[in-house]
Amino acid sequence: MGQPGDLISEGDKAPEFEAVDDRGNPISLRSLLANGAAVLVFYPGDNTPVCTSQLCAFRDNYAELTALGVTVAGVNAAGVAKHRSFAERHSFPFPLIADIGGEIAKKYGCRAMFGLTKRTVYAITADGVICCARRGNPNPAEIVKALKAAGKASQ
């Protein structure tokens, strides 16, 4: 994998992790991949304009993603209570992972200075391989296209 701030290359195995979500439930990469592919949306902060817009885009495309067998999760260093409030405020149908200490972000090359999380989206096939790795705010349609191209989502 490279340095802590480097993207994981497409074709590499996604690192396993264990944490809790915005409801305090245990969550892991393994559990996200239990029914198919997964999308991890790493974002810098709850209740900030760009992060809210990005996660709302995934919320608005959630039905299409789940119809393809894709599980979505947001990842940020905020705690469970802050995530829960953010998720409820915007009706996110997917979990927000409390990456306390930023260990997941570090494993995925999303750790920035001062403990911030770099805005990054990973699409991971059901067998745990990264098929799309993008910095910034890619359109959910781009992520769906990458999953379809990898043959890991329904056509």
Architecture blueprint of SSEs:
Elements: E1 18-21, E2 26-28, H1 29-32, E3 38-42, H2 49-60, H3 62-67, E4 71-76, H4 80-90, E5 96-98, H5 103-107, E6 120-124, E7 130-135, H6 140-149
Parallel strand pairs: 3-4, 4-5
Antiparallel strand pairs: 1-2, 1-5, 3-6, 6-7
How would you characterize this protein structure?
This protein is of the alpha/beta class. It has a single domain, classed as Glutaredoxin (3-Layer(aba) Sandwich). The chain is 31% helix and 21% strand. It is built from 6 helices and 7 strands. The longest helix is centred in the middle third of the chain and has 12 residues, at 49-60. The termini are far apart. The mean pLDDT is 92.
Task: Sum up the structure in keywords.
21% strand; globular; alpha/beta; 7-stranded mixed sheet; 155 residues
Mean pLDDT across the residues is 92
Question: CATH fold name, please?
Answer: Glutaredoxin
Structural class by secondary-structure content: alpha/beta
Roughly what percent helix? 25-40%
